[in-house]
Design brief:
With 576 residues, the protein is of the alpha+beta class. The chain is 36% helix and 17% strand. Strands 1, 2, 5, 6, 7, 8 and 15 form a 7-stranded mixed β-sheet that branches. Helix 16 runs antiparallel to helix 17. The N terminus is likely disordered.
């Protein structure tokens, strides 16, 4: 009869494959592909490790139809008009370093024209068209484009430049050697039996997207994959950077999206209609009839509107498209297809739902992290030498698809031009590092427990703790008492899962590791929320119910240093 050690050795997971590259890009979404293409243009070796398949992965997997940008021939010679608009009149400017906003906008035309050369229709109607997410009478910065095939096109461009793409290889841990990055451990989930691989790299670019599955799903509790954004974006880049000691910023200021009730989808700016109360009154003051150029920006301005009207009994709130002309209806449905909403469109067709005859109820979705996470500078560099970040996991800048594209390009451009002087560790040098040993042991222990606790139970428990002890407005409050209790419960949950969570295949092992990453993100968020001793929606403190003007021009950073949590306040970067 085999001994316990015999059983353990039979399941022992070790490094099966090694790779060496100059630049490792973690994540193959829009930011990751743009980073890889730009870096490869410098003649260096580039490898993308992607959880799914770069042709259809990330939040831009099946399309987008708005690209925030500055086109001088449309907007005039003064970029400051658009800078002001983004910082003060958009739903993305709250947590921006203004300097990064300027850097971004000055590069947008270059990226827009580059995409057009590659074959992404940036002027599908024949001209630069700025519609949606706009105020009547104000300058518009949302370029209407057709992004249905953007991921396939970018993947082809990356391959043309010799980028190595490892699909179905999520990175599960970063390797830091002293004061610089040295590579990462990835999990091969391309087959049922998981394998580990080691990637030695001089620079690492994190592009793992937003963080979902952190809070209870507001539309369908228990069905955590009914999400507006990519449900596999589980905070991996943020959690791994946190463990490596990188600075995070604005983590406590979660976001909440909105859209059709119970069927979570992005694209509310694509709808051409008027948000109304049940008695027909408009929800906001901006439009009284469908406006193709502006849409109805009410829900961007009054972010909590759909929750508020349900709480006070004046709702529900409906998107009313009944006054649409035939031409505007066709334009809206084309926009939805460009946005990647084909699944929702198919359902509407099957169910006989016609937005011109049926009002569609909207709701506010659960908190998540987008534009909150890693702190970067104008070159997309993080606080650890050799570590870069771009896209939705960046904490001091957000512009969604456009931000991912532009800062992905900047990250690859700068990394590719500066990678050669970096220290070099071979895969063999890293094989015996404590980080690799710890990852191998963790994966082995989880895989040994074939009848262990399923990852879903752990993820749902995490969501309940976050929802109860670090809630994000409206109509909810945080406090030191709640956050201290939440931190204790998160640590308890982590210990329980480390000793009991099991997996049966590569897929469930990946989800188990995602759950542990999410716990780390939740922990960092709670520490940051405890440090912000004020109310600044969506962060509402019962024990500090006022907004402190002294903190209005400051950002809160948080990092781990020698096992301790370090928080710091710093001024926004307004350099021109």
């Amino acid at each position: 009869m085999p001994t316990r050690s015999d059983v353990r050795s039979a399941f022992m997971m070790n490094i099966k494959q090694t790779y060496e590259t100059d630049i490792l890009v973690v994540g193959g979404g829009v930011a990751g592909l743009m980073a890889a293409i730009a870096a490869a243009g410098n003649g260096v070796r580039v490898l993308i490790a992607e959880k799914a398949d770069t042709r259809r992965s990330g939040s831009g997997a099946s399309g987008n139809d708005h690209f925030r940008c500055y086109i001088p021939e449309c907007h005039g010679p003064d970029v400051e008009r658009i800078v002001y608009e983004v910082l003060h009149f958009s739903q993305v400017g709250q947590c921006h370093d203004p300097h990064l906003t300027r850097v971004f906008l000055k590069r947008t035309e270059e990226i827009v024209r580059m995409w057009e050369r590659w074959g992404i229709p940036m002027r599908p109607t024949g001209t630069w068209e700025f519609t949606g997410h706009a105020y009547p009478g104000r300058v518009r910065s949302g370029l209407k484009y057709d992004g249905k095939q953007q991921k396939k096109i970018m993947t082809a461009e990356a391959r043309k430049r010799g980028v190595v793409i490892l699909n179905h290889h999520p990175v599960i841990e970063l390797i830091r050697n002293g004061d610089h990055m040295a590579g990462a451990v990835a999990l091969d989930v391309s087959r049922e039996e998981p394998e580990l691989c080691l990637i030695a790299a001089r620079h690492v670019i994190l592009t793992t997207g937003c963080t979902t599955r952190l809070y209870n799903n507001m539309a369908t509790p228990g069905w955590m994959f009914n999400l507006a954004y990519c449900p596999s974006n589980a905070g991996g880049g943020i959690a791994q950077a946190w463990r490596a000691g990188a600075k995070l910023v604005n983590l406590e200021m979660t976001s909440r999206h909105a859209g059709p009730k119970y069927f979570q989808r992005c694209g509310k700016g694509t709808w051409i209609g008027v948000l109304r109360y049940p008695d027909g009154r408009p929800l906001g003051p901006f439009v009284t009839k469908p406006d193709r150029e502006c849409g109805d920006i009410t829900s961007d301005v009054w972010n909590s509107s759909f929750t508020d009207v349900m709480r006070n009994g004046t709702g529900p709130a409906y998107m009313d498209c009944s006054q649409l002309s035939d031409d505007d209806y066709r334009y809206m449905m084309w926009g939805m297809e460009s946005e990647g909403l084909k699944g929702m469109m198919n359902y509407m067709e099957e169910a006989g739902i016609d937005p011109r005859r049926h009002a569609v109820e909207f709701m506010q979705y659960e908190p998540f992290l987008i534009g909150r996470g890693l702190e970067i500078n104008e070159h997309a560099q993080c606080s650890i030498p050799g570590l870069y970040a771009a896209g939705d996991l960046v904490g001091n800048f957000r512009a969604d698809i456009a931000g991912a594209a532009v800062f992905g390009w900047i990250a690859g451009e700068h990394s590719g031009a500066n990678v050669r002087p970096a220290p070099v560790e071979s895969a063999a040098d890293l094989q015996d590092s404590p980080v690799v040993e710890r990852v191998c042991r963790l994966c082995t222990e989880i895989m040994e427990r074939k009848n262990g606790c399923p990852w879903k139970e752990g993820n749902l428990a995490l969501q309940q703790i976050m929802t109860d002890y670090a809630p994000s407005g409206p109509h909810t409050v945080r406090s030191a008492n709640l956050l201290n209790a939440g931190l204790k419960y998160l640590n308890d949950l982590r210990q329980v899962l480390l000793s009991s969570m099991g997996a049966t295949c590569s897929h469930t092992l990946m989800r188990a590791l995602e759950t542990l990453d999410l716990i780390d993100v939740g922990e960092a968020l709670m520490y940051a929320a405890r440090e912000r001793r004020e109310t600044r929606p969506p962060h509402n403190r019962a024990d500090f119910p006022f907004t402190n003007p002294m903190l209005g021009e400051l950002f809160l950073t948080i990092r781990k240093e020698n096992g301790s949590v370090v928080t710091e306040w710093r001024k926004k970067n307004t350099a021109r």
